[in-house]
Amino acid sequence: TLSDKVKKEIEIQVKEVVGRPRRYNSEPTNPEDQFSKWDGSHKKLTEYIKSQMNNPDSYEHVSTKAGTKSDHILVVTTIRGENAYGATITTTYQAKCDKDTGEVLSISQQ
Q: Is residue 24 pLDDT above 70, yes or no?
Protein backbone atom coordinates (compact mmCIF):
# COMPACT_ATOMS: atom_id res chain seq x y z
CA THR A 1 0.00 0.00 0.00
CA LEU A 2 1.00 3.58 -0.52
CA SER A 3 2.07 5.67 2.41
CA ASP A 4 -0.12 8.60 3.43
CA LYS A 5 2.60 11.02 2.32
CA VAL A 6 2.72 9.53 -1.22
CA LYS A 7 -1.10 9.50 -1.45
CA LYS A 8 -1.24 13.17 -0.51
CA GLU A 9 1.41 14.07 -3.12
CA ILE A 10 -0.57 12.21 -5.80
CA GLU A 11 -3.80 13.98 -4.80
CA ILE A 12 -2.08 17.38 -5.05
CA GLN A 13 -0.68 16.57 -8.50
CA VAL A 14 -4.09 15.38 -9.76
CA LYS A 15 -5.79 18.53 -8.47
CA GLU A 16 -3.21 20.70 -10.25
CA VAL A 17 -3.72 18.90 -13.57
CA VAL A 18 -7.53 18.84 -13.31
CA GLY A 19 -7.62 22.58 -12.55
CA ARG A 20 -5.70 23.53 -15.71
CA PRO A 21 -7.50 24.69 -18.86
CA ARG A 22 -7.82 21.91 -21.42
CA ARG A 23 -5.48 22.13 -24.38
CA TYR A 24 -5.80 19.68 -27.23
CA ASN A 25 -2.37 20.51 -28.53
CA SER A 26 0.57 21.88 -26.59
CA GLU A 27 1.79 23.76 -29.67
CA PRO A 28 0.20 27.13 -30.44
CA THR A 29 -2.49 26.77 -33.07
CA ASN A 30 -3.02 28.99 -36.07
CA PRO A 31 -6.63 30.25 -36.12
CA GLU A 32 -6.50 30.25 -39.94
CA ASP A 33 -6.35 26.42 -39.83
CA GLN A 34 -9.91 26.44 -38.46
CA PHE A 35 -11.24 27.64 -41.82
CA SER A 36 -11.79 25.69 -45.03
CA LYS A 37 -9.26 26.53 -47.70
CA TRP A 38 -11.90 25.62 -50.30
CA ASP A 39 -14.78 27.97 -49.39
CA GLY A 40 -13.59 29.91 -46.32
CA SER A 41 -16.18 28.45 -43.94
CA HIS A 42 -15.33 27.78 -40.29
CA LYS A 43 -15.06 23.98 -39.98
CA LYS A 44 -16.47 23.48 -36.46
CA LEU A 45 -19.20 26.07 -36.99
CA THR A 46 -20.27 24.28 -40.17
CA GLU A 47 -20.44 20.98 -38.25
CA TYR A 48 -22.52 22.61 -35.52
CA ILE A 49 -24.97 24.29 -37.92
CA LYS A 50 -25.46 21.07 -39.91
CA SER A 51 -26.17 19.17 -36.69
CA GLN A 52 -29.03 21.59 -35.96
CA MET A 53 -30.58 21.63 -39.46
CA ASN A 54 -33.73 19.74 -40.55
CA ASN A 55 -31.94 18.67 -43.74
CA PRO A 56 -28.15 18.89 -43.32
CA ASP A 57 -27.67 17.74 -46.94
CA SER A 58 -29.26 21.02 -48.09
CA TYR A 59 -26.48 23.08 -46.41
CA GLU A 60 -24.83 25.57 -48.77
CA HIS A 61 -22.14 28.00 -47.58
CA VAL A 62 -22.63 31.56 -48.87
CA SER A 63 -20.03 33.64 -47.02
CA THR A 64 -17.94 33.89 -43.86
CA LYS A 65 -16.24 36.83 -42.15
CA ALA A 66 -14.13 36.50 -39.02
CA GLY A 67 -12.20 38.59 -36.53
CA THR A 68 -9.75 37.45 -33.87
CA LYS A 69 -10.26 38.73 -30.34
CA SER A 70 -7.96 38.24 -27.35
CA ASP A 71 -9.48 34.90 -26.28
CA HIS A 72 -11.83 33.88 -29.11
CA ILE A 73 -12.69 34.23 -32.78
CA LEU A 74 -15.88 36.02 -33.80
CA VAL A 75 -17.32 34.38 -36.93
CA VAL A 76 -20.24 35.65 -39.01
CA THR A 77 -21.40 33.15 -41.60
CA THR A 78 -24.30 33.10 -44.06
CA ILE A 79 -25.74 29.82 -45.31
CA ARG A 80 -28.61 28.54 -47.42
CA GLY A 81 -30.64 25.47 -46.52
CA GLU A 82 -34.10 23.97 -46.30
CA ASN A 83 -36.36 24.84 -43.39
CA ALA A 84 -38.91 22.46 -41.84
CA TYR A 85 -41.35 23.17 -44.70
CA GLY A 86 -38.84 22.35 -47.43
CA ALA A 87 -38.38 25.97 -48.52
CA THR A 88 -34.83 27.18 -49.14
CA ILE A 89 -33.93 30.04 -46.82
CA THR A 90 -30.82 32.15 -46.25
CA THR A 91 -29.69 32.56 -42.65
CA THR A 92 -26.82 34.46 -41.04
CA TYR A 93 -25.23 33.26 -37.79
CA GLN A 94 -22.81 34.98 -35.46
CA ALA A 95 -20.66 32.66 -33.36
CA LYS A 96 -17.98 32.98 -30.75
CA CYS A 97 -15.42 30.18 -31.26
CA ASP A 98 -12.50 29.05 -29.13
CA LYS A 99 -9.26 30.49 -30.49
CA ASP A 100 -7.27 27.29 -29.88
CA THR A 101 -9.72 24.45 -30.63
CA GLY A 102 -12.33 26.08 -32.88
CA GLU A 103 -15.18 24.77 -30.73
CA VAL A 104 -18.37 26.86 -30.87
CA LEU A 105 -18.76 28.65 -27.53
CA SER A 106 -21.95 30.56 -28.35
CA ILE A 107 -24.07 31.18 -31.43
CA SER A 108 -26.98 33.41 -32.42
CA GLN A 109 -29.04 34.00 -35.55
CA GLN A 110 -29.00 37.48 -37.02
A: no
